[in-house]
Amino acid sequence: MFQYYFLLGVRSLRRNPALTALMVLTLAIGVAASVSTLTILHVMSGNPIPHKSDRLFVPQFDNGPLESYKPGDRANDQQMSYRDAVNLMAGKAGERRTALFGIGMPLEPERKDMAVFIVRGIATGGDYFNMFETPFLHGQGWAPAADQRGDDVVVISRKLSEKLYGDADPVGRRVRMGGFDYQIVGVLDTWSVVPRYQHLDSADGAFGDEDDMYVPFATAVRHQVDRNGSTGCQGNVEPGYQGFLDSECTWIQFWFETASADRAALQSYLDSYTAEQRKLGRLLRHSPNKLYNVMEWLEFNKVVDNDNKLSVWLSSGFLLICLVNTIGLLLAKFSVRAAEVGIRRALGASRREIFTQFLIETTVVGLVGGVLGLLLAFGALSLIAMQSKTLSVVAQMDWIMLLTTFALAVLAAVLAGLLPTWRACQVTPALQLKSQ
């Protein structure tokens, strides 16, 4: 019976192609507008590492001065001082731990046909690669001893490797950056994390390109590599690089990985650490220590801002307007078929059968509108992606949004068809037969 009604619906739509095309186009435009903004929000707010996001934590404590501080004020700084980062790295809390900060250096290629260019990356600990499950194309990360010694080793991206060496495996070769020779120990495969939760303070933000290279944290400090990121300093800072390291300036991101989702032990460790530091005359604000898992960290940093959410609400309102127009078109279409409904009712068709037939007909409109809406959504996302590099990262439709497009189109058509279908079922057969 469903197949029979489906074919009837297709034939009915073909009777008035202009009205059908108008209904399909109205529905498709509303669906495309809604799905385009919803896709961007879906990508931006997605969980970048769902299987362990509840085991990765960012610590936050306030090391600011007492001046102008009021108890209860929120600590807005994402980062920590060098002293705290080194102390936490030396501790045994968590299964893995790493400090990191953005860096930039001039790279001097071996090839004579290439000029010196700037590469940007991260100075971090060796646990970084296992903690964030980075995919390696060649080699691996550096050994723990390299962290302690501050060896001149580097892991580079696949993009940088292909630029310098083509398809060859460069592991073991040396590359000169910032006036020092670094031995390549690994090459990361393409690693597009959206959003880039592990380093939100990067110059490119949460939706920038992947990093060019990674060097040991201690190595970058020893070579006084230029920082590529924000720095917050309060109070006096002694002159020189060592004076900067000894200060309370915050410029380092830190991550813990725990063996389980139980954060109580890690919280207890942080509380004990800050208590010890207060005995040394630091962290005098006594503000509560915080731990943020991945999704909490994204929320704290407002990766998805109110403008993105407002866009979704506005596009949903536009879809609602399109539905209202589709309802009007369906009412007009079904009203001229009153005689047909009267004859079918007189021949024994029940109201339920009439309702089913017309509802399936609106479902056909939804399916066609879904296909057209999907094409329009792809076009809209392509135009959005052309606006900036950041938008090109988030304007990508996955299979979830692909299914959502069809489901939304069919649901919208069914909802729009409920009132016209109900009105069609109220036709009185006797009146229609008498008028013929």
Automatic annotation (TrEMBL):
Keyword Transferase: no
InterPro entries xrefs: ABC3_permease_C, MacB_PCD, Macrolide_Exporter_MacB
Ranges for domain ABC3 transporter permease C-terminal: 316-428
Transmembrane segments: 310-334, 354-387, 399-419
Superkingdom, natural source: Bacteria
Assigned keywords, A-Z: Cell membrane, Membrane, Transmembrane, Transmembrane helix
Compartments where located: Cell membrane
Residue ranges of domain MacB-like periplasmic core in the record: 20-227
Cell membrane listed as a keyword: yes
UniProt membrane topology term: Multi-pass membrane protein
Name used for this protein in its record: FtsX-like permease family protein
Organism, scientific name: Duganella margarita
Phylogenetic lineage: Bacteria, Pseudomonadati, Pseudomonadota, Betaproteobacteria, Burkholderiales
